[in-house]
Records
---
Amino acid sequence: MTTGDRGELAVVENLARALKLPTVAAQAGPLSREAQAQGASYLRYLAAVLEQELLHREEASLKRRLKAACFPVTKTLDSFDFTAVPGLSKPQVLGLARGEFIRHKENVILMGSTGIGKTHLAIGIATAACRQGFKVRFFTVAELINELRAAHQENRLNRVMRQWLKYDLLVLDELGYVPFDQMSAQLFFQVVAARYERGSVIVTTNLEFGQWVEILGDERLTAALIDRLTHRAHILVLNGESYRFRESLKRQGVKTVSRTTEQ
Ligand code: ADP
Ligand code: MG
C-alpha cells in the first residue's frame, strides 16, 4: 500500500465511521488488498465491503434478540431427536420453525409428560423465530405470574401488558406445575386474551385440557382461556401413549385436535 493509498483509506475509514458503518471502516483496507490481488472490479469490491457490514449487523441483531428472549438454556431443533418421540411430526415442527404461525398470529401448544422434550422444542422453535427477525420472550408460567403480580401491585400492569404485545412470540413454559390462586388465574387469562389474534404464544404443559381447571380454579375462566388459546392453534401431543392420550382428548370433546390436523 502506497502512502497515497493509506491516506485514502484513512478518509474512507473516517467517512464510514461518520456514517455508522463500523464494519466498512474495519474491512475497507483488508478487502481492498484482496480485491487488488484478485483484480476484482470496483463494484465487486464495494459489494464485498457492504456485504460484510450487513452480515455483522444481522449477527449483532440476532444476538440481541436471543439475549432479549431470556431463554434459560440454549436448545435448537438440530439437536432434537425426533425418533425419540414417535407420535410427533417432524415436518410439522420444522414448518412451525419457519415462522408462518407467527405471521398468522397463531399459537402452539406442546402437551406431554415431564421430560419428553417440550421445553426443548419450544426453545428450538422460538430460536428459529429469532433467526427470522421475530421478537421473542420466554417465561416460565411461574415467572410470568410473579411479574404480573408485581406489576399489578405497583400499578404498572397495563404498561407491562402493552410492552409484551411488542413481542411477536411469547413462550409460556410449564403450565401445570404450580396451581394459581384466583388473582393469578385472572392475570394469566388477561395475558392470553390480550394476545388473542394480536400475537403468538407457545404454551408447554404436562396437563390435558380437561385438567387445566385444576390449575386455574375456575371453570368458566378455564373454558374461555382454552377457547382463545386454541382458536387457530397447532397442538402437538408428545407422548409415548399418544393414542390413549388423543382418545382422552376426544372424550373431553376437544375439537382442537382436528383443527390441528387441518393445518
Ligand atoms: P420437558 O420440558 O418436556 O419436561 P425438556 O425439553 O426439558 O422436557 O427435556 C428434558 C431434557 O431432555 C432436556 O435437556 C432436553 O434437551 C432433552 N430432550 C428431551 N427430549 C429430547 C429429544 N427428543 N432429543 C434430544 N433431547 C431431548
Ligand atoms: Mg419443560
---
Amino acid sequence: MKTEVGIIGGGPSGLLLAQLLHRQGIGTVLLEKHTREYVLSRIRAGVLEHGFAKLMREAGVGERMDREGQIHDGIFIAHGGVRERVDLKGLTGGNSVIVYGQTELTRDLYDGRDRMQGTVIHEAQDVTPHDLDTPRPYLTFRKDGESVRVDCDFIAGCDGFHGVSRRSIPPERLSEYERVYPFGWLGVLSRTPPVSPELIYATHERGFALCSLRSPTLSRYYIQVPLSDSVDDWPDERFFDELKRRLPPDVAAAMVTGPSIEKSIAPLRAYVAEPMRHGRLFLAGDAAHIVPPTGARGLNSAASDVYYLYHALLDHYQRGDDSGLDGYSERALARVWKGQRFSWWMTSLLHRFPDASPYDRRMQAIELTYLFSSRAALASLAENYVGLPF
Ligand code: FAS
Ligand code: PHB
C-alpha cells in the first residue's frame, strides 16, 4: 500500500487528522489495533473546547455535535457546603464549552471516514514504523495472518499513551516529564437525570467529586478514590452515598440515583514527552502527553496537536512549505504545557492529598477564597477552561 500520511491509532486524534487531511485531498491510511466496537465502548471525556468544536465542523463531522451537544456557559465549584458559579461566557467575552461525550464524537468521526470511504484498518496487529530518519518511512502490520507494508511520506503517531509510536523514538532523543497522583477517579455512568444542568466540581475533606452529564437522561459522576481501591469495592449504593456526602446538602438531596451502566477507575497521571517529532514521525494526543482529567484538557490538548499538524502537512503538500512541520513540536508543546499547568492547578486545588500538611490544606482553602474574591482569578480559570487560542 502507498499513501501520503500513515496514521497509527483510531481514537479521536487519528480519526480527526485523517478526516481533515482527506477533505483537502491528502491521502491517509489509518491503522487501529482494536475493533471499532471496542474503541466505541470506551467512556472517556465529555467537555469540548470551542476550538475543538470548530475543528469538528471543519472536518465535516460537527452536525450531530451541534444538534445533540449541550452548550455550557458556566460551571460550579462546590466547597464548604455551598456551590459558586463560574460564568465562563461572561468572563471570556462570550466563549463557552460543549458537553458532548468522546464516544459520540468518535462515532461521528468514524461515520465521516465511512462517508468519504477513508482507509481505516481495524485489528491491525504489530503495527511498526520503519525508516523514520529517511524521506521514505513505512509502516508494517499484520492483518488476518498477512503481513502488510504501507509506504508513506509521513507517519502520525496517534496511538495513545500505551502505543508503539513514542516507543519508536530512540530513548536518548526523548525527554520525559511525569507526575503520578496518589489517587484515581472512580467514574459512573447512569441513566438518570443529571443533578445539575451545569458541571459541579466539588472539593471536600473526604475527597473530590464531579457531577457531569452526557444528555438530559444520562449522568456522569466521579469521586476521588485511593489507588488501592477497585471497582468491586464500590457497589452502586456505596458510590452514590459517598458522592452525596461530598456535595452541598441541597445538591445531594436533589440527586436521582440509578444503576450504573458503566463503572471504572482511572488513575491520575501527568506526562509529557519532548520532542513530539522524530524524523518523519509526528506524535499527537495521548501518544505525547497525558493530563489528570480535572481540567477537561486531555481530549482538548489532542485537538490542538491535530490542528497544528494538519496545517503543517497542508503547507507541505499545497505550498512546499515545511516551516510548519519544522516548528510543529515547539508550537504544540507550548500549548500542551499550558494545558498541563491548568490541569495541575485544578487538581491541586480540588483534591485531598493524603500527605498534605496543615499548611498545604490552608493554602488550598485560601486559593479557593482568593479565586472567588477576584474577577481576574476567575477570568484566568475561565479562559483556560473554554480553551486558550490555538
Ligand atoms: P486514544 O488513547 O483515545 O486513542 C489511541 C488509539 O490508538 C486507541 O484506539 C488504541 O486502541 C490505538 N492504539 C494503541 N496502540 C496501538 C498500536 N500499537 N497499533 C494500532 N493502534 C494502537 N480527557 C478529558 O478531557 N476528560 C476526561 O474525562 C477524560 N477521561 C479519561 C478517562 C480514561 C480512562 C482515559 C484513558 C483517558 C481520559 N481522558 C479524558 C483523556 C482522553 O480523552 C484522551 O485525551 C483522548 O482519548 C486522546 O485521544 P487520542 O490521542 O486519540 O488517544
Ligand atoms: C466528563 O464528563 O467525563 C468530564 C467532564 C469534565 C472533566 C472531566 C470529565 O473535567
